[in-house]
Amino acid sequence: MEKTGKKLSRRDFLRGATAGAATLAASGLFSRLTYAEESAGDAIYTPGTYTATAMGMGVVTVTMTFDESSITDVVVDVSNETETIGQLHGETLKEAILAAQSADIDGVSGATVTSDAVKEAAANCIAQAMGVSVETVASSSEDSESTTSWKTAPDPVDESEITAVYESEVLVIGSGHGGIACARELAESGVSVILIENQDESVYSAMGNAAGCINSEYLLNKGVTEVDPVEFYTNWQLNTNNGATPKMAMNYAQHSGEYVDWFITELATDEEMATTSTQYFPLDEERRENMLSQIGHHKFWSSSIDLYGDLNMTEIHKRNHTKITENGGQIFFATKAQYLIQDEDGTVTGAVAKCNGEYVQYNAKVVVLATGGFGGNQEMMADLLPDLVEALQNDDQMSKMGMDRDGSGIAMGYWAGAALEHVIATMDGRTPWIGGSPGLSLSVGHPQGMWMNEDGKRFMNEYWGPIEFRSRPLMRMNRDRFYCIYDSNLPENLTYVAPNHGTKDPTYSFLENVQAAMDAAVEAGADGYEVPDPSMFWYGAETLEEVVSFIDADDRVKQNILDSVERYNELCEEGKDEDFGREPELMFPIKDGPFFLQVTDHDSSVGNLMCTMGGLITDGDQRVLAVSDWRPIPGLFATGNCTGGRFGDDYFTPLFGASIGICITLGRDCGKAIVKYLNDEL
Questions:
Q1: Burial tier of 622 (Cβ tally within 10 Å: 0-12, 13-18, 19+)
Q2: Which tens digit of pLDDT belongs to each residue from 470-486?
Q3: Which residues have C-beta within 8 Å of that of residue 329, sequence separation ≥ 6?
């Protein structure tokens, strides 16, 4: 007998249907299922094999075999987890479950997200074997007095449980791009600093490899165009609707090149830097002569340092760690912060953490939260991304793509009285990924074509602004079916792209793949050509009437498609899109056969995010603000993806690698602000 856990739909998500490890613990299920507490020989389980899944960095699958009174076998599939972190610990977690005869086991330090997912799936299997409804357990726990809400601070640890105490002027929690840059700046400024990191040093891995910056000395020497920082800042504030904290946005514009050079290029040899690249640069390489620097009012730049060669970001992080320790800083790996310490006036004076199962205390004059986002915490996503949850429909699900954390820094700040953003940016979460063509799965299709809804009617400017904003109208409409139509000039039209995150680089190989799909569609005729996504078909024919005749739709929809193309071509001829405001230079008429009609059915995935990009509200110096009076909480700073005030209501990229570039820049700026704070200059 086998039962597999399903994806988290909008309905299930809103009522918390997947009984996560925390929910099961709150309901008492973990303790009730601990084999050691049961009498030997009692019939506890229905013998058989049961399977369940849970979301870690990817999908984690646990399969468990039971006899009447024990767990006899466990198979843990962590193949979708981070190769150098979660994938290393499947066997360890399996042995722990077998030894405990329970899902109530200690997680692996440094692989918390994977550990929690394995425990969740294992608890689901045990519930199935006991005949306990997981959904019933989840529902009953919601009504109990016991709460597992992330908003509830844990009880302080008794002093007798603290096994070690460390002292420093500054404690930085989290060794991501921002945390490292902050700690290194402090160490090089002569400030005593401790950096703690949840990952074990032996499996330490950085997230992402591209740092977007402008006016890097390294990039300028390569021939990348110099950028006016004020122009960059103004464009940034346009993208955020002036929602980014002005000082933070301007610091990124003014200092990103210098700081990214400091973080990366100064720590690498010329030979290593020669293996790096810059997205969509140089412009004259292959088919990039039509690269767009502006779409409407929104501007774009090809200006990033991409470590996808022999030198990667994990190695750069390790070299920055060395810089920190060379300058007197200390780094503690496999250490997970639990909560902040505050005095009676609310001043933050340190934190309690857990290392190898033991509690340790760090006393400091300043604590910096640099713990990343909260995409690994489904409860926080439900609470802090309400607009995204409400937009889910059909098979949409809230899930992450392997690049996010558990939100612990945001929770610790909240417990300390911090104010939270009400709208928090996500990387890709609000983008309806609804098909595309070979090599691209964004929105309805390529913006170089014309998009139509299920009635066959055009409904938006397909080429509007940043790629992350382009599909927003789709979130507020039915997404069961869309049509996109092109003519034979598609490969040439595909060279008109802006250099930002998610754009397909129009290399010869990419354009050849597109042309091959077009040729296959014409050859397939009425049968259609199925591209890698099984719910998406391309039809090709020499005339518009013939290609429209191939689709499974009523005559009214078919006529609407033909009428929509006729209207669109008239607007192209006039050079003004009076219907939806598409820029004249980006209006490609659909007039030269053969013609191609793309049909996408039931394939939306709003909520599939890479990471979250905000949370704690800070001032321009990254001091965390109190919800009570919006003044800084003494002794508390934050930087990186747990910090708000950077991306407005959603992530966007006027240049590739904006997420990492701004983390490095503002992380170092945070360190500089702390030096002033310690000297009573802030």
A1: buried
A2: 888 888 888 888 999 99
A3: 183, 184, 186, 187, 192, 193, 194, 195
300-340 pLDDT tens trace: 999 999 999 889 999 999 999 999 999 999 999 999 999 99
Q: How far apart are CA 261 and CA 661, in angstroms?
A: 11
Residue 3 has pLDDT above 60, yes or no: no
Query: For position 27, what pLDDT does the model report?
Result: 37
The phi-psi region of residue 635 (left if phi > 0; otherwise alpha if psi is between -120 and 50; otherwise beta) is left
- What tokens appear for 212 in the block? 């977007």
Helix (H, G, I), strand (E, B) or coil at 624: strand
Give tens-digit pLDDT for 363-379: 999 999 999 999 888 88
Q: SS3 string of 62-74?
A: EEEEECCCCEEEE
What is the C-alpha end-to-end distance of the chain, expressed in Å? Answer: 64
| 142, burial (CB in 10 Å: exposed 0-12, middle 13-18, buried 19+) | middle
Q: Is 383 exposed, middle or buried (0-12, 13-18, 19+ CB in 10 A)?
A: middle
- E strands within 479-605? 481-486, 529-530, 536-541, 595-601
CA distance 298 to 205: 34
How far apart are alpha carbons 503 and 497 in whole angstroms?
A: 7
Supply 133's token pair.
């409804």
Counting every residue, how long is the chain?
A: 682
Supply φ then ψ for residue 277, to 5 degrees.
Answer: -140, 175
**Per-residue confidence (pLDDT) for residue 472, from 0 to 100:** 85
Q: Is 89 left (phi over 0), alpha (psi -120 to 50) or beta?
A: alpha
Unique residue bearing structure tokens 């053969």: 594
pTM of the model: 0.81
Residues 170, 192: contact at Cβ < 8 Å?
yes
For 85-108, give one letter per residue: b (16+ CB within 10 A) or e. bbbbbbeebbebbbebbbbbbebb
